[in-house]
Amino acid sequence: MPPKGKMTDSIDLPASSKPAAPTVRTAYIALGSNLGDRIGWVEKACKEMDARGIKVKRTSCLWETEPMYILDQDRFVNGACEVETTLEPLELLDALQDIENSLGRKKIIDKGPRNIDLDILLYENLAFDHERLKIPHIGIPEREFVLRPLAELIPDKPLDHTRPWTLTRDLLDALPPSPTPITTMTPLSSHGHPPIQALNPSRKTHIMAILNMTPDSFSDGGMHGSSTLESTIQSFLDAGATMIDVGGQSTAPRTPQVSSSEEIGRVVPAIRMIREKFSSRDVLISVDTYRASVAEAAVAAGADIVNDVSGGSMDPDMLPTVARLGSTICLMHMRGTPANMSSLNEYPESEGGLIGGIARELVGRVAAAEAAGIRRWRIVLDPGLGFAKVGPQNVDVLRHLEELRTWPGLQGLPWLVGSSRKSFIGQVTGVPTPKERIWGTAATVAAAVQGGADVVRVHDVKEMAQVVAMADAIWRY
């Protein structure tokens, strides 16, 4: 025995006698629920997979679908995820069934109601035939609720090695149109607020009220002191706001940065006050920050959503922090920092021009969020009007918002548009004072609704709520 606390020399075993490292395989798992907190059950299942070493690498959006086979049951939430695992197929099946059981699943009727359902769809390129498990899953070709999320993950993968020319998207395109078009679902909080259904043509647009707890914001700096804060929030909610976006650091060009502790000191008391004073109101709170520490403090105080103007690029801890918190994040398109963004506004036609550049860079931010562990169904996008875009470029973004919504890699995700009082409106209308740009803002808000925005971020809540009500009546039915 060596003396206690001493290291002994290691003995190198011959390579042939060393245990082989387990092989990591890629599999695709279907996720489903139609009981209780449907999205919550799916998220718990994903956490359980991660905890058991079945690493969830990417997820699809979550889709709300009508029941199939047994029609007398509630609608389902369905999705799919890509996982890495060292388990063999039957071992993986055992692990997934154990997760179902640990989450309280009781299978009473085959294809009937269940709080959680986990099925192996694909395992590498393996064709597997066992009395307990068939891979590829035999139901894939006939089920839109499986094919649509799978096509988000692997649109160009053949599912049958004997027919390598038939890809996932080909099988999806071959399905007859659904009598009830399915829609994605983006949860906004853990308080029971309805999720955004970004593909539901009759959805209503959210009004996000801007609450800048800063002395130097471009149009309302220093307006929201503690003495008037409660009445301001009351007026927002009474006018029709469904979300309040609390910010403690101005992102206007040439505005000095404050410390993270000062930013937290600005936003956290406001968030706590909203939660305490307006607990009976159905209000969502987002925190406008690009700092992970501020996001974490804000969520602990009661914020539901993290609204990051940098898309998670200015603080390397932001995306992992949001993933750990399980919050929904809004990823905005921006280049550089607020200090230099205005000079980074060239979008060469050879690289797709303005819309192609925004789309490509947002696809990259979505990929970064997913790599950090944020589920795809927890992502909202923002084209970033006024950020690395000048003058007419912002108008062009509004013209082409629908194109961004349908861009490959961004499809099905909800969008937030923040045009309120911005300088491009002043340039078009000739109104130099931001507070007086109400009519120009109204036109941009109507354009955002027509283009498919799910959330509009505004200063003038009462006026813009009326604009949204009319725009929804015209375009959302």
What is this entry, summarized?
One of its GO terms (biological process) is tetrahydrofolate biosynthetic process. The chain has 477 residues and is an alpha/beta fold.
Secondary structure elements and pairings:
Elements: E1 25-33, H1 38-51, E2 55-59, E3 62-65, E4 76-85, H2 89-102, E5 117-123, E6 128-129, E7 134-135, H3 144-153, H4 168-174, E8 183-185, E9 206-212, H5 226-239, E10 243-247, H6 260-277, E11 284-288, H7 292-301, E12 305-308, H8 318-325, E13 328-332, H9 353-371, E14 379-382, H10 392-399, H11 401-405, E15 416-417, H12 423-429, H13 438-451, E16 455-458, H14 461-475
Parallel strand pairs: 9-10, 9-16, 10-11, 11-12, 12-13, 13-14, 15-16
Antiparallel strand pairs: 1-4, 1-5, 2-4, 3-4, 3-8, 6-7
Helix pairs in contact: 3-4, 5-6, 5-14, 6-7, 7-8, 13-14
Please give a structural write-up.
- Helix 6 (260-277) links the parallel strand 10 (243-247) and strand 11.
- This protein has helices at residues 38-51, 89-102, 144-153, 168-174, 226-239, 260-277, 292-301, 318-325, 353-371, 392-399, 401-405, 423-429, 438-451, 461-475, and strands spanning 25-33, 55-59, 62-65, 76-85, 117-123, 128-129, 134-135, 183-185, 206-212, 243-247, 284-288, 305-308, 328-332, 379-382, 416-417, 455-458.
- Strands 14-13-12-11-10-9-16-15 form an eight-stranded parallel beta sheet. Strands 1, 2, 3, 4, 5 and 8 form a six-stranded antiparallel beta sheet that branches.
- Helices cover 34% and strands 16% of the residues.
- It folds into two domains: 25-180, 2-Layer Sandwich (Alpha-Beta Plaits), CATH 3.30.70.560; 199-475, TIM Barrel, CATH 3.20.20.20.
- It is built from 14 helices and 16 strands.
- Helix 5 packs across helix 6 and helix 5 runs parallel beside helix 14.
- It has 477 residues and is α/β, with parallel strands linked by helices.
- The longest helix is centred in the last third of the chain and has 19 residues, at 353-371.
- It is globular.
- One of its GO terms (molecular function) is 2-amino-4-hydroxy-6-hydroxymethyldihydropteridine diphosphokinase activity.
- Residues 205-469 form the Pterin-binding domain.
- Catalyzes three sequential steps of tetrahydrofolate biosynthesis.
- Its EC number is 2.5.1.15, 2.7.6.3, 4.1.2.25.
- This is Folic acid synthesis protein FOL1.
